[in-house]
Structure formats: C-alpha cells, structure tokens
Amino acid sequence: MKITVKLFATLRTGRFKVETREYNPGTTVGEVIKDLNIAEEEAALILVNGRHAQLDYQLSEGDTLSLFPPLGGG
Q: A single Pfam family, by name (predicted)?
C-alpha cells in the first residue's frame, strides 16, 4: 500500500520533506517511524490524515502520515 509521509522541522535533517512510500497492509505508525530510523520520542506529534494518531494506529492505502518533533517555545 502507498503511504505519503511528511516530515517536519528537525525530522527532515538527512531525510526528506514529503515522500510516497510502499508498505505492507497492516503496517502501523510505529513501524514506519522505525523504518525511517526515527526514535519514538523524536516523533512528538503524529497525525494521520490530519488527525492525531498513536504508534499502534494501522495505516491504510492512501493515508498521509505527518510527523513533528517536540516543539519548544517561550
């Protein structure tokens, strides 16, 4: 199945901004994060199709997964 993965801020470093990737049916968000060599704690905000998702969320054909690092501010 094809999944569009969007990386933001520091998660792009040495990776990509947007990429369509092929995964097996039933692949979870956590498995994609591991495949991208991103530590789970680095993916502080996870969205699937614009909605908050957890690591165990099973992705479906055509989903868009957006990953954000921890955000700081003051």
A: ThiS
**CATH number of the domain within which 10 lies:** 3.10.20.30
Residue 74 lies in a domain: no
The DSSP letter of residue 33 is H
Whether 57 contacts 29, CB under 8 Å: yes
Which H helix or E strand runs over 31? Answer: helix 29-35
The whole-number average pLDDT for the span 36-41 is 95
Entry pTM: 0.93
Please work out, in degrees rounded to the nearest 5, the angle formed at the alpha carbon of residue 8 by the alpha carbons of 5 and 11.
Answer: 90
CB within 8 A of 4, min separation 6: which ones?
18, 19, 20, 21, 62, 63, 64, 65
